[in-house]
Amino acid sequence: MKILLVQTSFLGDLILSTPVIGGLLSKHPGAEIYLMTTLLGQALVRKDRRIKGVITFDKKKSEKGLRGFFSKLKEVKDHKFDIVYSLHKSYRTSILLFLAQIPKRVGFSKAHLSFLYTDRVQRPPKEHDVLRNLSLIGHIQEFTTAEMELKLYGPSGTESKEILDLFSIKSPYAVIAPGSAWATKRWNASGYREIVQKLLTDFKHDVVVVGVGSEKEIADQVAFGTKAHNLCGKTDLFQLMGIVSNASLMVCNDSMNLHLASAFKIPTVTIFCATSPDFGFGPWQNKAQVIEKENLPCKPCSRHGGNSCPTGTELCMNGIPTDRVTDAINQMISR
């Protein structure tokens, strides 16, 4: 039996979907599991031996238009899948899977054009996203704690050592991820910079600042004048996995790095600014502390944050004192 699992959302969403892979193998013993994801997503699961193959969909660039859509349709159709489970809820995904003529198509009832699926599942809105994803393949009460674990297969011990040596990173070290795709999800750079200094001096930890190229400005502000390793824009995803998986601590915003740390069971301090962990995207099964500005009538202002504060005050981003973060770090690591 050939099964396709579709998750073409952000990298963090893919990480939170990894328990579904194991769940499918339990539900369909002996099946071949294929994953449809983005080009970056492919890098994230490159060592996952549970997956027979990966179909990449570069939906925002090279395969954005109709030509790309029909090319992808042919590729999916040629595989002759027996079942598809779609975690993605877009119009394009619903149409693509319907036209691919996969006999059994399972999607969420609130997906766009959900009538194109043969089986529709109610997504439990108040659960953590890991459980919402698992609900696509069964009742969440059926899964054990172990089956709910995020699973990423990163660099081996030897590969990780080579990565740390390449960037001259010494243990113990903390990872600081001050960026986010949305400006209102970022705690202020001055606060992060103060935390970097405390980790270096008070906690005697090496510090690694990470992020993608578009986050270079805030990363530079955070690392400026310190002895932190500023690796923003200098690592690929595989190297980042090696760095995070061997860290003593992660300090980050509501972002992909939060879920990466959860997957590798790294103690984490997460600062939620415009968003809220109540949306179901908080830490999962790792030692963690969540910090946010309470009692703001404007918070959360949206599900994913935005590029500017709708009130102009930026209280959720600038109203969290560094001592709250330091206290949380003190509970995460010992000096």
Write the layout of secondary structure elements.
Layout: E1 2-6, H1 11-27, E2 32-37, H2 39-44, E3 53-56, H3 66-79, E4 83-86, H4 91-99, E5 104-108, E6 119-121, H5 129-134, H6 157-166, E7 173-177, H7 189-201, E8 206-209, H8 216-223, E9 229-230, H9 237-245, E10 249-253, H10 256-263, E11 268-272, E12 288-292, H11 315-318, H12 322-332
Parallel strand pairs: 1-2, 1-4, 2-3, 4-5, 5-6, 7-8, 7-10, 8-9, 10-11, 11-12
Helix pairs in contact: 1-10, 3-4, 7-8
Keywords:
alpha/beta, 2 domains, Rossmann fold, 12 helices
Describe the structure.
Helix content is 34%, strand content 16%. The protein is of the alpha/beta class and 335 residues long. The chain folds into two domains: 2-148, Rossmann fold, CATH 3.40.50; 157-332, Glycogen Phosphorylase B (Rossmann fold, 3-Layer(aba) Sandwich), CATH 3.40.50.2000. The strands form two sheets. The protein has a six-stranded parallel sheet, sandwiched between helices. β10 (249-253), α10 (256-263) and β11 form a beta-alpha-beta unit. α1 (11-27) runs parallel beside α10. The N and C termini lie far apart (52 Å).
Give unreliable regions as ranges: none
Number of domains: 2
The strand order across the widest sheet is 3-2-1-4-5-6
The CATH superfamily of the largest domain bears the name: Glycogen Phosphorylase B
Q: Could you say what the CATH architecture of the largest domain is?
A: 3-Layer(aba) Sandwich
What is the succession of H and E elements? EHEHEHEHEEHHEHEHEHEHEEHH
Overall mean pLDDT stands at: 96
Return Rg in Å: 21 Å
Classify the secondary structure makeup into a structural class. alpha/beta
The CATH topology name of the largest domain reads Rossmann fold
How many strand elements?
12
Oligomeric composition of the shown chains: single chain
CATH class of the largest domain: Alpha Beta
Percentage of residues assigned to helices: 25-40%
Biggest sheet, open or closed, and with what strands and sense?
6 strands, parallel
